[in-house]
Amino acid sequence: MKAEAPVKPHIGDLTIEELREALAGLGEPGYRADQVFGWLYKKAADGFEAMSNLPKAFRDKLAGAFRIGPLELFGVARSKDGTEKRLFRLADGPCVETVLIPAGGRMTVCVSTQVGCRRACAFCASGLNGFVRNLSPSEIVGQILALRHALDAPLTNIVFMGMGEPFDNFDNLARSLRILNAPQGLEIAARRMTVSTAGLIPGILRFKELDLQVNLSISLHASNDETRTALMPVNKKYPIEKLIAAAKDYIAGGGRKITLEYILFRGINDGAQDAEGLTRIAARLRAKINLIPYSPVHGLPFQTPSEAEIQAFLKRLEETGVPVTLRHSKGRDIQAACGQLAGSLIEEYRKARK
Predict the structure, then answer these.
(1) What is the CATH number of the domain that holds 233?
(2) The pTM of the whole model exceeds 0.85
(3) What's the rounded Cα separation, in Å, for the pair 301 and 120?
(4) Same domain flag for 133 and 157
(5) Which of 97, 139, 165, 261 is catalytic?
């Protein structure tokens, strides 16, 4: 029986430094990596043959050593508020979702880092079907490339808040950030990128060692351990006090100001005591609070507070002087809002293609 040939690495999985090293092993000078990066990320080449200013012998070397290719766009849903959700099918079959969020002069892309999620937050659709696998750097960056070169308007901000827990896929996340930030690549400023974590302390500690001024958001969602553990099982391993200590260590080590993400659930975390506890945590960390009313997920029992209840909670926070922003998630009508991503377009587009 003939053995299958090993799968070649995707060239988009390499940082500029890693590509230089790989090309040196092929006998090529370092500047070739800069040329290839330019073709991949500035000119959106989807094949080695498209890299027309490179010698054919070199292109043949690349084709022999690497594979290349964009993500397959499987479906698009458009919200009445201008938000777009795109479903990408990966080479081995699973799908992930990416959201484009226009707001004033900003164009933000919400990126997925995993197929599914192992963290099983009680309110989030991404983990309902469990964890499938991590995304590679080429699959993470590929979501951004697909949008960047399909739109007339430039992308201004990248948020890693889609499907999956980014710090559960730390190495591929780190490579993706370096590719996005590289001057030879997409050249996206670090301060225009934000990574959101459910509170994985080892990831927070590693994140500060990246030496990139990428923003960090922590999904808190409760100010006491009992409520947070019920919403986010990760709190059993990394309870609030340990999380606060890690966040302080991150800031002291040169990390940027942290944002605390707080989804409001009616009757669960929206009371006066919850507000007081949240402001105390924010004050200890000198953090900004991003207040987000819950976006319903089919089959889950949680409810969104009324507008009056949201405003009352917001007022309690503002009266303490802690910086807070109220963010109503966009794209609810297409299941593209915070916590709603779970590959919901898959069945719809499978049926459409039959």
Answers:
(1) 3.20.20.70
(2) yes
(3) 15
(4) yes
(5) 97
